[in-house]
Amino acid sequence: MWAKRARRLLGFLRWLRPGMGVKRYVLVAAAGMLLMFLGVAQLSWQGVFLDWVLDFVLFTRNLGLPLWLSGTVSFLVGLGVFSLGIRAMNRSILSAVTDPDELPERIWKKRRLEAGPRVVALGGGTGLSNLLGGLKTRTANLTGVVAVTDDGGSTGRLRRSFDVPAVGDLTDCLAALSEVERMPELMKYRFQRGEGLSGHTFGNLFLVSLFELTGDFAEAVRMADRVLALSGAVYPSTPHPARLVAELVSGERVEGESRIRETPGRVRKVWLEPESPPVMPEVLRALARAQLIVLGPGSLFTSVIPSFLPPDLRRAIAESPARLVYVTNVMTEPGETDGMDAYAHYKAVAEHLGRRPDAVLVHTAPLEPGALARYAEEGQYPVAYDPAPFDADGVRVVEGDFAHAGAFVRHDPEKLTARLLECVR
């Protein structure tokens, strides 16, 4: 106990070291408190003890000022001096870590976001990172759960070299939620030269470096969340390497996410090998506390469904009291969802998950003709929508304009966030 008290005393005394910029303001605040005391004394004690406290009292009495007036003036002046001293001391302390003028806005924003709904979003690729970027403007109670089965490009090279889960989509989601200035740009920076570096992004190398440092991918992700000062949290669907396997309608078995994308033929089902990889406890706790769980948007069989394939994760979603919403893609994807309409997308999610979504968001507004023509050249077409089978299943469909206006047909984060949060209410 005495040792603890001694440490506290030493901690307090450190504030008195030269160069701290604090002592002068403490003295100003103390002077203000003394004046406030004198004011209260004159107002409440009627001067009984004041004649021998300070000549100031005698001076005010010789001027013929009543005690209530001199006491009020003394108290107000003291209050002003005390406030100036405390304000200057706070600015001096805060200037060492942040801009004091920006602090009120930052505190207000943080408190507002902390009061937002508890949301867990699952998926991968560009769709999930864009969605997280929109959601972080409305809530800080946000958890991204990312599919880690990608095996192409920089991610594939790192997987083969270091035996880690896919880091590419994790990097994009970490960048989307980071509050560190210019960190999203840095995380996505891709090296264009350098033997062994060309083609890799800084974020991918950053995650792998943390894994090498800790020896544990789950701990590496936790450390990344802290270092990047996330507005929320990002976790992999499993911290262990897992391979995605698909069975096509033809009966053909295809292993590896890249091969699934490249192999012609519609996918019947997908699973992981090993089939029961572990899930981080933070993900299970987030799902248990969630008010809203969002699946997608993203590639149906290679991003959205793989994000919830671990059995423990599926069980947590099934048992969660949160509303479950699936966001269908705007466009089909060649070799993966050719000819599949919105209802077929929904059925694939429900069958793999073992729980029906409470609502399905479908983009139904017209798309820019020029963009549609460009996508048609690559075999991509708008996902068809017929409300009849949804009505027959008793599934709520949220229709609307959720697409971003531009050369690329993708969901608009702000439009999507606004409608998703309405589902919470």
TrEMBL record:
This is Putative gluconeogenesis factor. Belongs to the gluconeogenesis factor family. It comes from Oceanithermus profundus (strain DSM 14977 / NBRC 100410 / VKM B-2274 / 506). Keywords: Cytoplasm, Membrane, Transmembrane, Transmembrane helix. It is found in: Cytoplasm. GO terms for cellular component: cytoplasm. Required for morphogenesis under gluconeogenic growth conditions. One of its GO terms (biological process) is regulation of cell shape. The keyword Membrane applies.
